[in-house]
Structure formats: C-alpha cells, structure tokens
Amino acid sequence: MRRPAGKRAKPTAARHGAASRTGAAGLRGLAPELLVELYVTMRRIRRAEETIAALYPEIFKCVGCGTCTRSCPMDIDVMAYVSKAIQGDITSLAENSFDCVMCGLCSARCPAEEVQYNIAILGRRLYARHLVPKAQHVAKAVENIEKSLWDKSLKGLKKMSQDELKKVYKALEIEPDIADEFWVPKDKTYVQED
Ligand code: SF4
Ligand code: SF4
After folding, report:
1. Which residue, 13, 70, 120, 121, has fewest beta-carbon neighbours within 10 Å?
2. Using CA atoms, how far apart are residues 75 and 121, in angstroms rounded to an integer?
3. Which of ligand 1's atoms lies nearest the C-alpha of 69?
C-alpha cells in the first residue's frame, strides 16, 4: 500500500531494534574515553552539516543540470561537490573543490542561483575547523611558548641590530625539499626539542 504524501514511515520495532543492536555491538568494545571522543566528533560533523544548510538553503534547489561542471575552467566537477554539500559530506566537499579559483562562472550560469564557490569555501573552512585532526607539533610549540622556553632566544634577538638579525636569518639552515617529519636543523639555538 502506498504511503500518503508527506507522511514518513515510522521505524518498525524490528527495523529499529536491528539498527540499535548493530550500533551497540560496534560500540560495546570501545573504551569510555574513545566513546566520548566519538560523540564529540559526531557532534562537530553534525554542526558543520547544519551550518551549510542554514547559510545556503538554496543548495537544495539544485536540479542536477550539470551546467556548473561544464562551465568550470578548472575542470572541477562542481555539480558533484554541490551534491556532497547537500549530503552533508564536508570532507568530500572540501577535497573536490580544492582547485576552485572563485571565478564565479559556475554561479553565473546556474538556473538555481547557487553560489557554488562560496559553498565550497565554507566547506573547506568547516573542514579545517571541525574535521582535520589537531596538529600536535603546533600544540606542543604553543605549550613551549606558554612555558616561556623561548624567552631567552627571543631576548637575544630583540637586542640585535637590523644587520645582525639579517646575518642570523641568512645563516639559518633551510629545511630540504624532501625531509622526513623528524628533521631539525643542526644549530638548535632556535629549536626547542622534546
Ligand atoms: S548549475 Fe546549479 S542547478 Fe545545475 S547542477 Fe550546478 S548547482 Fe545544480
Ligand atoms: S568559481 Fe570555482 S568551481 Fe566555479 S567555475 Fe570558477 S573555478 Fe570552477
């Protein structure tokens, strides 16, 4: 029998029970701190999805005509990233729109009056804010600044003349193009190691 228009199917006890059991079984073995982390991550993802829908509700008017994709000089599948925005898949939206130069050609020809490049840049900002794992080395560097571990070097630099500063700068060892993640310069004057 067909469902009346506008009415959503209620989950049956069997369906609801099966889904809950599957989810619970998957989570049962996790340590409490991992469960908390998972919960916080899911809240952040949800918030990111809601932000796009709230600021650009017109994304839901996309008719899938593909004009934006055909217009893009950067060969980006614009319709695909708009579709990812609609699905709330922030990671794919950010990755698929990365080459956008914000020329606006996609938007100029869109029959649904979308502003695709703004949706894309919002997606990339939300991705950076909520989804990219925190850079541990930056957190450590901030911690070291707060502990005043750099004060001595900084005081020395502040006492130097402009010419002396230029000399120090030119003498700095430059990180090679291909260096492993543990690379540090030989002179450790301005490097705080763990
Ligand atoms: S041009 Fe507009 S309506 Fe057409 S696919 Fe692109 S975003 Fe959707
Ligand atoms: S604004 Fe970005 S996505 Fe749109 S056509 Fe230009 S480069 Fe392509």
Report:
1. 13
2. 17
3. 6
Contact yes or no for 85/53 (Cβ under 8 A): no
What is the amino acid identity at position 50?
E
Residue of 71, 97, 114, 115 to test ligand 1 pocket, by largest number of atoms within 8 Å of CB: 114
Are the CB atoms for 158 and 164 separated by under 8 Å? Answer: no
The answer to whether 130 and 49 have CB atoms below 8 angstroms apart is no
* pLDDT, tens only, 22-76: 455 666 677 777 777 767 666 666 667 778 888 888 999 999 999 999 999 999 9
- Answer whether 112's CB lies under 8 Å from 61's CB: yes
Whether the model pTM is above 0.90: no
Gyration radius (Cα) of the chain, Å: 25
N residues, the chain: 194
Domain limits of the chain? 37-131, 136-171
Start-to-end Cα distance in the chain: 68
Sequence-distant (6+) residues with CB within 8 A of 153 are 189, 190
